[in-house]
């Protein structure tokens, strides 16, 4: 991948409590694209996303944002350009949708700059983009799983960043709500030009919605490219130890996995 991408990993190693997870990984998130990061359990997908967002420190190498090592940039500066939605976000009980989305404006608040018309407009636009304006006054715990995920995405959108990272955004959702959420993410990518990278477990959904895919194995990039280049019988056998056949999706023409 070109070293001109706004967000990339360079010779990145990271882990937890002395246990390595990422091993000298180099990858770039294509600007303006919708990237799906796939791979078996414990291969480093979430760790990569967290390290790219500076939530996880790098043991060696670096994550680079806009040409500069991300750990050398201030938290406020990073938060104005990159938003991340973790796997299991938590919010205080009783918090309404509007209050949650308003938290996305935190990077723009200071002792000298309190709530402004710009903040209110950003929250309103995020609610509209995610079709959550009609639920703005409802508490989060009163929402369905799909609505709750849309509310969290609205909060990330309210940050008004050019880069959006989503860690397993379809977790705990049934298939119709997974499709609904991924259609929303795809629409946001296409209509607003945001660069999106997300961790997904379902290879068929990743191939259908992503414009670029990164397949990880044992903490390294095994391959990356267009879905047609990544979702192949040879790659899935090597990465997942899954014998399969690949056929064109009859509705969308994207690669579709049939396990053997």
From TrEMBL:
Limits of the ABC transporter domain: 7-243
Superkingdom, natural source: Bacteria
Localisation: Cell membrane
InterPro entries, alphabetized: AAA+_ATPase, ABC_transporter-like_ATP-bd, ABC_transporter-like_CS, P-loop_NTPase, Siderophore_ABC-ATPase
GO molecular function annotation: ATP binding
Predominant subcellular localization, coarse grouping: membrane
Keywords assigned: ATP-binding, Cell membrane, Ion transport, Iron, Iron transport, Membrane, Nucleotide-binding, Plasmid, Transport
Membrane topology (UniProt): Peripheral membrane protein
Name listed for the protein in its UniProt record: ABC transporter ATP-binding protein
């Amino acid at each position: 991948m070109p070293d001109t991408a706004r967000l990339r990993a360079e010779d990145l190693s990271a882990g937890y409590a002395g246990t390595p997870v990422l091993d000298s990984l180099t990858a770039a998130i294509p600007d303006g694209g919708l990237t799906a990061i796939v791979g078996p359990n414990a291969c480093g997908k979430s760790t990569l996303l967290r390290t790219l967002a500076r939530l996880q420190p790098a043991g060696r190498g670096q994550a680079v944002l806009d040409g500069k090592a991300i750990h050398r940039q201030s938290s406020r500066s990073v938060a104005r350009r990159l938003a991340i939605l973790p796997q299991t976000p938590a919010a205080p009980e009783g918090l309404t949708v509007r209050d949650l989305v308003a938290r996305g404006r935190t990077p723009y608040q200071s002792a000298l700059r309190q709530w402004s018309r710009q903040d209110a407009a950003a929250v309103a636009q995020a609610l509209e983009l995610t079709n959550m304006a009609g639920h703005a006054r409802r508490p989060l715990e009163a929402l369905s799983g799909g609505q709750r995920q849309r509310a969290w995405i609205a909060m990330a959108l309210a940050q008004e960043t050019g880069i959006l990272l989503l860690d397993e955004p379809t977790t705990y959702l049934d298939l119709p709500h997974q499709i609904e959420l991924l259609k929303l993410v795809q629409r946001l990518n296409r209509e607003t030009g945001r660069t999106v990278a997300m961790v997904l477990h379902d290879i068929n959904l990743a191939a259908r919605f992503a414009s670029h895919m990164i397949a990880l194995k044992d903490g390294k990039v095994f391959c990356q490219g267009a879905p047609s280049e990544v979702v192949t019988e040879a790659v899935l056998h090597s990465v997942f130890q899954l014998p399969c056949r690949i056929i064109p999706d009859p509705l969308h023409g994207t690669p579709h996995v049939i396990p053997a």
